[in-house]
Amino acid sequence: MSTEKPFNLILSAHAGQTSIPSLENITDFSLNITDCNQVVVPEEVFFTVAAAGILENLLVLVAVIRNKNLHLPMYFFICSLAISDMLGSLYKTLENIFIILCKMGYLTRRGDFEKKLDDAMDSMFILSLLGSIFSLLAIAADRYITIFYALRYHNIMTLQRALVILAIIWTFCAGSSIAIALFSHEVATVIPFTILFPLMMIFILCLYIHMFLLARSHAKKIASLPTSAVHQRTNMKGAITLTIFLGVFLCCWAPFVLHILLARFCPHNPYCACYMSIFHVNGTLIMCNAIIDPMIFAFRSPELRSTFKKMFCCARYNWNWWKLNEGEYYRSTPMQHHFAELKILTQNDTTLAGNCR
Amino acid sequence: MSALRLISNRTSQQALSNSDYTWEYEYYEYGPVSFEGLKAHKYSIVIGFWVGLAVFVIFMFFVLTLLTKTGAPHQENTESSEKRFRMNSFVADFGRPLESERVFSRQIAEESRSLFHFCINEVEHLDKAQQSQKGPDLESNIHFQEVSRSSGTLEEDLNCLAKYNIPNFVNTEQNSSLGEGDLLILQPPRVLESKTAMQSSHRILD
């Protein structure tokens, strides 16, 4: 029993969904009517949600690569988040394809090749989780530096340093994901994995709360703000935004992390088994996270939105849309991007978009 | 791996009594789980987990909104000292941003600085003329556009204004990438700037 591999549940739980009766079919539930049967999510839903996540994140990547104005550390961190979300959705898609192949009989479920493939896919999934956590951390740290070290931001966060930081993060995530997937039967890997998750969340929360407090205290110092009702409304918006950031991540990833914990420590407990029966719903939540993350991080930037508009608008009228940037090239600083979301700018987006004809 | 095979061989092959085309699942590492004698509801962990998560998120939201209303008193003192420190560091660093900006030559910087003064003076003038509060955003937008049309391309104006207004602030706009509050705070690019210039530029960007 100590050689249990909790991550094999990911594949084996699906692999069991086959119509081929074989000698190795084992059910662990008696025919008791109070069993917790596996909650099934249709494969069409899986594929749709996964495809939507992949496309959306790919769009973000393409937009950032194409527009030279977006070659900034802030957007590189957002791209890193998009890549990790894409990996998560890709994992789910590949897993479903794998199961379909198993059902059709092209792959056996016990072969060595399949087990290696299972390990590889588990490590891809853990890579996606770790990549998401560290990307969120990098985004929060970047914003923190922007606010508290605004004047020296250019010197602290240069493009090269951002790329180096991203390289370190991804190397570390890749190494740990492979190690966790290979040694997942050890207690020593499951515990750090599950402790890392809340620790990072608390750290990110502290960073944002500090930024939030600064914003609020500066607001109080400005005498020219008209009414206190404006205070309440605007600060409420900040609170809502922050709650959405962290709430979405927590609600999408915590169920899976709990699943891993329960699979390791109490697999035979009926309560734990009932929790583990909703595994597919947890997987769908992770894919939903891949869809929601670009909306709350990438699409909030007007520059990125205007890039999308131009991409879709110019594609219709001008096939030579690689030259998007040349007409409007101006080297903007990160500060301008951070608060370039002026109403003036968004108003002028429509005029600029109109110029692409 | 061999232990897993042992387990799988040990338990008998039990096909479900239903047809062959039902969902079967293999937790081949585990033995059968019996569901008899449960004291609580069988989904109690699921319900407890989601309720706990919802309570935590709502609690976090209320803590944040309480922070906005009452705030942390000790934070005020530390913020004022930080702000003083930032002002000093800004003065010390003032010469640096221009050199680190590789794209703008000094000529362009001079030009845009004069343009900035022009923008500020224009807006100050218009602002003093109209003190009404109705649609401040719309008005400032209109004023700004008037100013900008008269002074050159829009992008240069935005560029110059944004470039020189930024040292420390938090964006308050709804569409901000920071998305923190909606409070726009400006600090003057020079210590010699008057406070009115700051307020007027704040009104523009708000």
Summary keywords:
heterodimer, A: 357 residues, mainly alpha, Rhopdopsin 7-helix transmembrane proteins, disordered N terminus, B: 206 residues, 8 helices, 0% strand, elongated
Describe this structure in words.
The complex is a heterodimer of chains A (357) and B (206). Chain A is mainly alpha-helical. Chain A is built from 13 helices and no strands. The termini of chain A are far apart. Residues 1-7, 9-31, 324-332 and 340-357 of chain A have low confidence and may be disordered. By secondary structure, chain B is mainly alpha-helical. Chain B has a domain at 41-68. At the A-B interface, helix 1, helix 4, helix 7, helix 8 and helix 9 of A face helix 1, helix 2, helix 3, helix 4 and helix 6 of B. Chain B: Belongs to the MRAP family. Chain B: One of its GO terms (biological process) is regulation of adenylate cyclase-activating G protein-coupled receptor signaling pathway. Chain B: InterPro entries: MRAP.
Tally of alpha and pi helices of chain B? 8
Tally the helices of chain A. Answer: 13
CATH superfamily of chain A: Rhodopsin 7-helix transmembrane proteins
Low-confidence stretches of chain A: 1-7, 9-31, 324-332, 340-357
Oligomer: heterodimer
Distance between the termini of chain A: 67 Å
Work out the count of structural domains of chain A: 1
Mean pLDDT of chain A: 75
- The mean pLDDT of chain B is 52
The largest sheet of chain B is:
none
**Mind telling me the C-alpha Rg of chain B?**
32 Å
Estimate the strand proportion of chain B. Answer: under 5%
What Rg of chain A, in angstroms, do the CA atoms define?
23 Å
Largest interface: A-B, 118 and 99 residues
